[in-house]
Recover the amino acids of this structure.
């Protein structure tokens, strides 16, 4: 049963919202101690909300578009009265005092929040090993990382602990763990989803997006969270589509998709083989395949991290121990401290022109090139992550860790939508197919994923 079928069964009374919550709570109690994907549960409120939804359905009252569906929320997205720690000791006692806009949207449509998902500390990582609460296991490759920084959100979906989860994506933090865990992860166009209530990693790059096990879950989530928010300055006021309209599509006739040889060259051979098989299914469904090139791949990681360091340093100045939490530099982990120190250094007046301003120029160059690549095609397709996830505890130096992001940071630098859908496995480890599109062409990605999913069945 996919997510939209489950929604319809709840609305028809075949399955109650309470049963849906109870089923997930049972799985959480069986699996979470070993997987460490949820770091806080919202059990009492979730059951109460489910009972209220069931009562409305029983009385013939109208219910929301997510009625009874169960969500996990990444630990850097505010949920009122739950601990929103960003997986850091800095905020281990911080109770959310309000709901992020996306959380209010979910609750307004009768979605149910079941818990807070683990993550890399302050989203600074690609493995979910930097969490103050300990690493999260990859449910579909036990012993290996789930990816990051939204590793907990990917894992709660992969382990079937909820219907949908929200994460944040700054340089691949939704798509990377979606690829490693064998689920779908979607980063919308920058500004399509409100960032209000998200704890910043890098404000010009961060975007909230959903995880699900099937495309219908992604579509339902996007229908809810994609919206203009007058309280958040980056959101776009646009005529958003109904993302569920293309869920039954089986043809990509008239759609042109591109592969990029530069992306293939930096990716492990076995991953490329698996991803190519997935791309061939899109071609079999009618898509025309062309090849493009990208001349500035070597610029992407340094550009991304220079911007990330400076914006993260600025974002963390509020964690000074006076208003809430502890002083971040005194309690944070090594990777967070590294980013704060480098960001502080680069932000100084004498270095800003040398590093940060040059990074902003490079970002414009990258954005222009990716937009030029997309000018005559609908989608760019290829591997999500260039290598398989390492074993938990394996020592990687920072540059080896950052290399996970080389194919995903481009979408954040350019502000374009991108998603990862399971392409298959290599050595029984999931790998993802990344699909990227022009700004505000998010629906084309959903359509391609729906057709891909429908050809599997």
């Amino acid at each position: 049963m996919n997510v939209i079928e489950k929604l319809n069964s709840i609305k028809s009374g075949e399955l109650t919202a309470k049963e849906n919550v109870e089923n997930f709570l049972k799985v959480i109690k069986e699996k979470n101690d070993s997987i460490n994907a949820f770091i806080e549960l919202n059990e009492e409120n979730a059951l109460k909300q489910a009972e209220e939804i069931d009562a409305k359905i029983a009385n013939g009252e109208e219910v929301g578009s997510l009625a009874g569906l169960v969500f996990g929320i990444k630990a850097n997205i505010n949920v009122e009265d739950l601990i929103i720690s960003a997986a850091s000791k800095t905020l281990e006692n911080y109770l959310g005092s309000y709901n992020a806009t996306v959380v209010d949207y979910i609750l307004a449509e009768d979605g149910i929040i079941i818990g807070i998902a683990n993550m890399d500390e302050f989203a600074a990582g690609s493995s979910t090993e930097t969490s103050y609460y300990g690493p999260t296991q990859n449910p579909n490759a036990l012993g290996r990382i789930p990816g990051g920084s939204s590793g907990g959100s990917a894992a709660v979906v992969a382990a079937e602990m909820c219907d949908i989860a929200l994460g944040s994506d700054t340089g691949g933090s939704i798509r990377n763990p979606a690829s490693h865990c064998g689920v779908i992860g979607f980063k919308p166009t920058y500004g399509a989803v409100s960032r209000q209530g998200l704890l910043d990693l890098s404000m010009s790059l961060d975007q909230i997006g959903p995880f699900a096990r099937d495309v219908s879950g992604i579509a339902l989530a996007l229908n809810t969270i994609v919206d203009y928010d007058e309280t958040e300055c980056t959101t776009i006021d646009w005529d958003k589509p109904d993302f569920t309209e293309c869920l039954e599509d089986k043809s990509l006739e008239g759609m042109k998709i591109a592969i990029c040889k530069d992306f293939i060259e930096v990716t492990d051979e076995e991953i490329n083989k698996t991803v190519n098989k997935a791309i061939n299914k899109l071609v079999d469904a009618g898509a025309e395949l062309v090849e493009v090139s990208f001349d500035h791949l070597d610029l992407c990681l340094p550009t991304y991290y220079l911007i990330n360091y400076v914006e993260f340093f600025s974002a963390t100045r509020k964690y000074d121990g006076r208003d809430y939490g502890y002083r971040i530099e005194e309690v944070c982990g090594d990777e967070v401290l590294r980013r704060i120190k480098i960001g502080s250094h680069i932000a100084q007046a004498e270095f800003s022109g040398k590093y940060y301003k040059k990074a902003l120029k490079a970002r414009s160059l990258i954005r222009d090139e990716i937009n030029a690549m997309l000018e005559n095609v609908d989608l760019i397709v290829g591997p999500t992550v260039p290598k398989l996830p390492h074993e938990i505890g394996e020592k990687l130096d920072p540059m080896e860790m950052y290399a996970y992001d080389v194919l995903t940071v481009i979408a954040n630098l350019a502000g374009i939508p991108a998603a990862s859908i399971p392409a298959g496995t290599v050595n029984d480890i999931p790998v993802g197919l990344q699909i990227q599109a022009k700004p505000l062409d998010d629906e084309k990605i959903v359509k391609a994923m729906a057709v891909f999913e429908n050809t599997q069945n």
Notes: The chain is about 40% helix and 15% strand. The longest strand covers residues 418-426. The radius of gyration is 21 Å.
